[in-house]
Amino acid sequence: MQTVVQVVCTRGRSLRDAIANDPRLARHGLEVIQEKKPGRSPGWTKVRSTESDRGGSMNIQWDGATTILTCRVINRGSGRPNLIIGDFVDYLLSRYRRRIKVVTVLPG
């Protein structure tokens, strides 16, 4: 199953880079496990939860032209994406609330 979380933001630096380099990410139970082309566009970052009951991972991409952060949640088998999505949205709102205009979750 694949679920998409789309975050419309205000103009500014790449939110994907900010997330990938955030030393407080671990405080929210998340960790970066892989990154392609860090600091460059287009690039992506893969994040997963450090909690044992959260399955799956999240691929994060930033589009600077539209200032949209697109996050694809990948779960295998009967895994439910609601827990990792909840953790990630909680993290975004606690760290980047001023940059966020809209958060949309599109179930897969």
Task: Describe this protein's structure.
By secondary structure, this protein is of the alpha+beta class. It has one domain (2-106): 2-Layer Sandwich (TATA-Binding Protein). Helix content is 19%, strand content 39%. The protein contains two helices and six strands; from the N terminus they run βαββββαβ. It has helices at residues 15-20, 82-96; strands at residues 2-9, 30-36, 44-49, 57-63, 68-74, 100-106. The radius of gyration is 13 Å and the shape is globular.
Summarize the amount of helix as a percent range: 10-25%
By secondary-structure content and strand pairing, the structural class works out as alpha+beta
- End-to-end distance, in Å? 6 Å
Largest sheet: 6 strands, antiparallel
CATH-derived architecture: 2-Layer Sandwich
Helix-strand topology string: EHEEEEHE
- What is the highest CATH level, the class? Alpha Beta
Number of strands: 6
Q: What is the spatial order of strands in the main beta sheet? A: 2-3-4-5-1-6
Low-confidence stretches: none
Shape: globular
How much of the sequence lies in strands comes to: 35-45%
Give the gist of this structure.
By secondary structure, the protein is an alpha+beta fold.
